[in-house]
């Protein structure tokens, strides 16, 4: 990992009808978002699209154009509805075929007599792509341009992300501190807006929750890449909270 | 609810930095997707964007233009980072101000002396919008054009969706049947592709999972709006599975 001066950004593209129908509940977005944030890559946007080539191509091209990286999940299995690799090849305008390196990886897991046409789909890799090893079940993901294509099964996706992370360009990590307000969100909203304005380089988020006794409470999350700015804003937030009328 | 001949489609837009940073794990996408699918509304795409006006405006306009409905969650609270209502007004090119109906709703929950400027933000509603009542904490959502704006807190969002659902135009419900293959995905992939081609009007998804004894297994999900087409495809899927070599 190298640390860049400019923010390093990412988008996430989740591919699959089963997410859009609600049959499968996505568990990858939150995992990838938290992981990338922790290493200094800002996730700027997320999309979920169906297993339709033109939708995938359009989303890949829109998201890769305006982010440092695009991470995709899903659609790289052995069945007819797994069209991610072909769609990504189309988005890049490159050819796609069975990759001998990927075929060799499959043969570490699959007996040669079982390597049928369906399983060979999992070795179809766009021309020019690097492979992303899959320590769980061998069928690899791949990395082409700034697009990293991963499996949809969470355990496999997570293993692939671990392979990729050390090679990513990263920015300065976003620091954050959470302050429990012990106040209702509507009571901190006014002073908080003034504080946010007074602290450029810092963002302050406000998240209501019900506390142990069921009373409305609020978490304030202060974020900055600069430790000094963060500390100053947190100090002001705490002073503001101390000045609120006791409830 | 009225049933239309054409598919009724929806997009979901989740608004909030806390989702993109991974601090908060989204629980709304899967809920809304499953809910809408069950009543005959097809979710075609999902996006998550940050609390930045131009991002919200662009996503609202892109998604409302090509879907019957757009459902948004998040960003309608009392703090400075809650900018969804203003952004939606901007997307529609209409004015926004404190709505007397929404103000009256807030006063059912909040004492008049507590109705400060921050809380009044929650009564800011774009001109021409219908309110969506909030039985949990009163601050309403709203419905403008084909866009339905809901809270991000799951319990409140769910209550709002219950209010809205009876008024939605709905299509024919997508029927689905899940068949446990008791086979590895790579062994069903070939015959399944042929079956999918032979059954227009039906989609067949394939989802690998590890069964009780840890062996790779596959769920096949057959979907169609036509009961007859569904039954015929399911019968063919079962016959195909029965013809596979025993493992």
TrEMBL record, chains A, B:
Pfam families: FLAD1_M, MoCF_biosynth. CDD domains: cinA. Transmembrane segments: none annotated. Residues 11-171 form the MoaB/Mog domain. It comes from the Bacteria. This is Molybdopterin-binding protein.
